[in-house]
Design a protein that fits this description.
Shape: globular
CATH architecture of the largest domain: 3-Layer(aba) Sandwich
Structural class: alpha/beta
CATH class of the largest domain: Alpha Beta
CATH topology of the largest domain: Rossmann fold
Strand order of the largest sheet: 3-2-1-4-5-6-11
Number of helices: 11
Distance between the termini: 45 Å
């Protein structure tokens, strides 16, 4: 018999790639979707899976809608990818971020505990929980020091998952994912902002790219690779927490160089440093150690940053060219 999975945040970047992966594995895929006036399913259409998913209206901030979705879907696995996921916006909406990214996790865990205790649960944790890093390379034992409302809310979600696993015996795992990008990433994220600008400037539709701290270092990978690690976590006999990363760090400056070189331009001629894009509390560097995921899950990233940036720029060139 095929398994059933419920994905919160199914219309987001990770949700779309995970839905595609699970459908390819023969899963019956359900998605939790919030009511929105704008089109939120374009990523699912982009991957050709929109019509293959059963949708449940609900919101992570509303416990009743979560319970209804769990009872109706009867999932073998739940992947909590829903979140207010943009760090910058968390400073403007700290309470909303706390409720959705923190309390929303509790709503899911409580629904599992009460109505589906055999369901396996995946929590999307984040490298932003490390914030002001306490070790040169961050792994599962590195102390957390979040530097944004987003990081703080996600840390609550992470620790409440650990507590429900240890207190109630739930199969609940957390993936501490470092930055993972794709052509499906939202335009507000720096990787898409860079790839989109490179395409627009090349096509004569934009003249400059305004950024904040371009010397910030991040560990960037491809979202399509990272969703496989999520799935692998829920196939293990014992639930656990895993860092998912490439183990390589790159500056925003270097990323700009790659993107603009791909379209035959010099980024230095177009990038403008704008103080308004600096964070109230900067996170200068994040670098993951994925050794545990490699050893226990057999997972390694397949896509290099240069390949990822080329993929994103090419997608933006096609999209902007049609405007």
């Amino acid at each position: 018999m095929s398994k059933t999975a419920l994905i919160t945040g199914v219309t987001g970047q990770d949700g779309a790639y995970l839905a595609k992966l699970l459908l390819e594995k023969g899963y019956d895929v359900h998605g939790l979707v919030a009511r929105r006036s704008s089109d939120t399913r374009w990523r699912l259409r982009e991957l050709g899976v929109e019509g293959q998913i059963s949708y449940h209206e609900g919101d992570l901030a509303d416990a009743c809608s979560i319970q209804r979705a769990v009872i109706k879907a009867k999932p073998d696995e739940i992947y909590n990818l829903g979140a207010q996921s943009f760090v910058g916006s968390s400073w403007d909406q700290p309470v909303t971020t706390a409720v959705v990214d923190g309390i929303g996790v509790t709503h899911l865990l409580e629904a599992i505990r009460q109505f589906a205790p055999q369901t396996r649960f995946y929590q999307a944790s984040t490298s932003e929980m490390f914030g002001l890093i306490q070790a040169e390379r961050q792994d599962e034992n590195t102390p957390f020091y979040p530097r944004s409302p987003y990081g703080v809310a996600k840390l609550y979600g992470h620790w409440i998952t650990v507590n429900y696993r240890e207190s109630f015996g739930l199969h609940a795992s957390s993936g501490i994912l470092f930055n993972h990008e794709s052509p499906l990433r939202g335009i507000e994220f720096v990787t898409r902002k860079v790839s989109d600008a490179a395409a627009r400037i090349k096509l004569g539709k934009q003249t400059e790219l305004r950024l904040g701290n371009i010397d910030a270092k991040r560990d960037w990978g491809f979202a399509g690779d990272y969703v496989e690690a999520m799935w692998l976590m829920l196939q293990q006999e014992q639930a656990d927490d895993y860092v998912v990363a490439t183990g390589v760090t790159t500056t925003v400056r270097d990323m700009c160089k790659l993107a603009f070189e791909h379209v035959g331009l010099n980024y230095e001629d177009y990038v403008v440093i704008d103080p308004q894009f600096f964070r109230p509390a900067e996170v200068e560097v994040l670098l993951g150690n994925p050794g545990k995921a490699e050893r226990k899950l057999g997972w390694t990233p397949k896509t290099s940053l240069s390949t990822l940036i080329e993929m994103m720029v090419e997608a933006d060139l096609r999209r902007v060219g049609k405007e």
